[in-house]
Amino acid sequence: MAVENSKNTEQLLVLVKPDGLKKSLTGNILTKLSEAKLVIVGAKVIQVSKELAEEHYKQLKDKPFFQELINYIQGKLHGSSYSRVLALVYQGENAIAKLRHLAGATNPEEADPVSIRGAYGRITTKGVYENVIHCSSDPVEAEREIKLWFRPDELVIKPYPTKKTTIKNCDITVWD
Ligand code: DAT
Ligand code: MG
User: Fold this and answer.
1) Across-strand partners of 39?
2) In angstroms, rounded to a whole number, what is the distance separating the alpha carbons of residues 99 and 116?
3) Which ligand is nearest to the CA of 101?
4) Which label site among 16, 53, 110, 154 has the fewest CB atoms less than 10 Å from its CB?
5) Distance between CA 64 and CA 66 in Å, rounded?
6) Dihedral over Cα of 47, 49, 53, 55: its sign
7) Domain residue spans in the chain?
8) Residue of the nearest CA to atom 18 in ligand 1?
């Protein structure tokens, strides 16, 4: 009898936001996330453009806090040394629910105190939720976000279909 593969393998985008970097929390956050026993399949540091920030959070564009959220993810609240995020892709069984549980609720004041957001997040006097970490919310969003933040060749696995293409007359920077 054939044994069905019942594993629900998922991948998701995780961002250590500028406040997480500025507070030197990267190690603590990655240690906490390792409780889920997932694997990291991509990682890089990125300076977030306005275009990338707005595309990432496009579902929230009508919210009153949208502009502050864009400023926050671009690092404009934390000084030029922290105008970047650490972007990671995690993969594993039920990865999204596992990491969102460890991250905690969106509002850091409502988050479980032993979750990442509960332990390290804050709400600024301007009302910005500085909640340290982003985790994709569901598989559809995860695919959209991973494709937005990473090229296929930046991941050690290819979770989605790829195709070959030729880019002509394209200048790239290489080591001198
Ligand atoms: P999550 O990041 O938990 O998936 P979300 O997608 O609803 O939550 O919102 C994205 C980010 O927007 C969230 O991490 C922090 C910010 N945010 C959400 N609701 C907010 C609010 N009421 N006031 C201020 N910032 C908020
Ligand atoms: Mg979300």
Assistant:
1) 91
2) 10
3) 1
4) 110
5) 6
6) negative
7) 9-154
8) 106
Q: Is 89 helix (H, G, I), strand (E, B) or coil?
A: strand
Report yes or no: 151 and 108 within 8 Å, Cβ to Cβ: no
pLDDT in tens, 1-22: 555 667 999 999 999 999 999 9
Question: What would the pLDDT profile of 74-123 be if each residue is shown by its tens digit?
Answer: 999 999 998 999 999 999 999 999 999 999 999 999 999 999 999 999 99
56 is catalytic: no
Decide whether any atom of ligand 1 lies within 6 Å of the 69 Cβ: yes
Which of 69, 71, 115, 117 to probe ligand 1 with, by most ligand atoms within 8 A of CB? 69
Residue owning the nearest CA to atom 15 of ligand 1 = 129
